[in-house]
Each structure stands twice: as C-alpha cells, then as structure tokens.
Amino acid sequence: MITRLLGADDIPAAAALIRAGDIVGMPTETVYGLACSAYDADAVRKVFAAKGRPADNPLIVHIADPAEWSPLVTEIPPLAQKLAERFWPGPLTMILPRTERIPAVTAGGLDSVGVRLPAHPLAQALIRAAGVPLAAPSGNRSGSPSPTTAKHMLDDMNGRIPAIIDGGDCLCGVESTVIAFDDAETVRVLRPGFVTPEQLQTIAPQVIVDGAVLSQLKPDTVVRSPGMKYKHYAPKAAVTLVNGDAAHFLSYMGKCTGDGVFALVFDADMPACQTLRLHAVPYGDTDEQRAQAFFARLRELDEAGAQHIYVRAPRTDGVGLAVYNRLIRAAGYDVVTL
Ligand code: TXA
Ligand code: MG
Fold first, then answer.
1. How remote is the CA of residue 138 from the centroid of ligand 2, in Å?
2. Which of 3, 6, 142, 163 could be joined to 52 by an S-S link, Cβ 3.0–4.6 Å?
3. Which residues contact 100 (CB under 8 A, 6 or more apart)?
C-alpha cells in the first residue's frame, strides 16, 4: 500500500475512505490523528493494528458539533456542558459513561468514552463529510513522539494506511487535555494540555491534577486512564530531563560529553551553549513555543543521530505542565534535579 498525501480539496475522497471502513490521517490543532468511524469496530481494529497499540488503551472520539455529543454518552452533567461551552472547539477531551453507540473496542473495553470537538477546520470538515463521529488516537506508532506535521505521520505510517490529509503544522503541538469528573463539582486532569488546570478552574469549582501526571506510577496501580501506564512519546535516543536554571544546566552539560550527546534548550540558552561548543538545539522561549516544537525536535534529533538528549525542563504550571508531562515519559522517568 502506498500512503497518499491529500489536501483540503480531497476531503470528500478521505470521507469516502472512512465510510468504506478505512482509516485516514487527520490534522488537528493538537497533533495529527489516525481517524476512522467511531461506530465501525472493524475499522477501529485497523487503527489499533496500524499504530501497534495495546487493545486496552481507548481512542478519543471526535465530533464537529456539540449536538453530536449526547448520543455517545449516557448523560452530560451541567459542569461538562459549561466546559464545552467555554473550551470547544478546542483541545479538551471529556470522559463520561458511554452509550451502546460506541463499540467496546473503541473504548478499549471501558464503560466510558472521551469526546472532543477539535478546532482544526480540516478535522471538522472531515467529520462532517464522513457523517459519523471519528475515533482518532495520535497518528504515531505506539510509544513514539506524536506527529505534528504530515511528514512525521508519513514517517511512522507509510505503507500502513491509505492516506493522510496534510493540514500543515499543528498549532498546539501537544495532545488535548483529558479530564474526567470525580463528582458534580470536581474535574480530574488525567493528561494536561493546552487547556490548563488554571483555565479549568475558571469554570470548575474544583480541579485536581491526577498524581500520575507528574510522577511515575507504582507497579499494579489501578489507573484512571490506560494511556498513563504505557511508555510514551520516546525518540530512539535516550532522554534525560534536567530541572535547573540556565547556569546549573550548563555546568551539568559540561560533564556530559560525547559524539551523540545533544542538549534541547530554551532559545535564550543558545549563545552560552555555543560558547561551550555543546550540540544544542533550541525548543522555544515560552511554554506555548516549547509545546509546539518539542515533539518535532525529538524526531529531528533522532535523524541527526543523537544517542542521548539532555532536555532543559520546562515549568510545571500553565502549558508547561503538558510539556513536562510528555518529557518525563519520553525520558522513561530519568529526571535529574540540580
Ligand atoms: O489531541 C488529542 O487528543 C489527539 C488528537 C488526534 O485528537 N488524540 C490523542 O489520542 O492524543 P491518544 O489516543 O493518543 O491519547 C488518548 C489518551 C490516552 O492516554 C487514553 O488512555 C486516554 O486519552 N483516554 C481515551 N479515552 C479514555 C477513557 N474513556 N477513559 C480514560 N482515558 C481515556
Ligand atoms: Mg498518543
């Protein structure tokens, strides 16, 4: 199979593939997704196979209009409704008990489903043209960095799927915020994203960031979100996440020498890195820039032959929390605090 790159004009052709039970690469504002009809269990199985994803890790279901939500879940609590009004279209996924409309395979065997309404116009156009909600995990091979360009998705999926719609670079660069509801007033953040805990707090009376967001799960922990327990986002190179200010980071890097050693740093660190002749690559100066860039940088460093990447850790508030959460997993929890 040759994987074709499609453009905005090819939405009808991509929708026809989905209606015929096939799977298609879809741009969203967060990362590229691997989309199929959420109602088609056989197509969903193709998604799991193309990604190499464990069957117990559920897919997010994407809708194009808030009215498409109610057939998928048993009930929409008032707090969820308010959050949808504030954050949809956008990078927020809400987990609620599912109806029979969602096949068990789509939900990874769980009795709930995560739903989101993406902001990307091509994602919305594809959902509308297909006429069904689209199940779509991130479009990487399981465990690899998520794809933020059509080329990254092609690198992972070439020959495995019929087509990818090229919608350019993803604006957020990090996957959606995933939340569950502990009770009528309490939101639990299972995966941080561009919609931050601070923003959720403007609507929800109580916001809890799940303990697994910032630390490693103990073996045998029962997880609220199966994705929490798998190795994730990792390039081929080893990754170490380094917490510390610029001066400490640079002096630490002075001791980490060797051919395949690279540093992933803030833009402002670059002049000092050049003085020290470090192989350094910048990933932005703001949390938003770093979110947009870090998956792409990890892929590029693999292509440059990196053996070990030392990453200057972002902050753990705002959008920084989302980047930090992905990086501790990319590092396999190899985190150094200076
Ligand atoms: O931004 C995104 O969310 C992207 C784009 C394509 O929309 N999609 C994405 O999907 O990141 P995926 O499958 O790579 O990550 C979904 C995460 C997983 O960690 C999964 O375990 C969790 O959400 N999840 C999905 N449905 C769930 C459910 N019903 N209960 C608990 N966790 C769920
Ligand atoms: Mg993923």
1. 4
2. 142
3. none
Domain ranges, ordered by start, for the chain: 4-213, 238-337
3-state secondary structure of 217: coil
Would you identify the CATH topology of the domain 238-337? Rossmann fold (3.40.50)
Is the domain spanning 4-213 CATH 3.90.870.10? The answer is yes
- The pLDDT score that the predictor gives to residue 229 is 72
Among protein residues, the one whose CA lies closest to atom 12 of ligand 1: 137
The per-residue pLDDT for range 94-139, each reduced to its tens digit, is 999 999 999 999 999 999 999 999 999 999 999 999 999 999 999 9
Instruction: Specify the residue with its C-alpha closest to ligand 1, atom 32.
Output: 225
- Residues contacting ligand 1 via CB (< 6 Å): 28, 30-31, 33, 57-60, 91, 93, 95, 107, 110, 112-114, 118, 136-138, 175-176, 178, 190-191, 225-227
Q: Band the pLDDT of 175: cuts 50, 70, 90.
A: very high
pLDDT in tens, 245-263: 999 999 999 888 888 999 9
Among 179, 159, 137, which residue's Cα sits nearest to residue 32? 137
- Given this model, what pLDDT does residue 258 score? 83
Q: Of 232, 228, 209, which Cα lies nearest the Cα of 218?
A: 228
> What's the pTM?
0.97
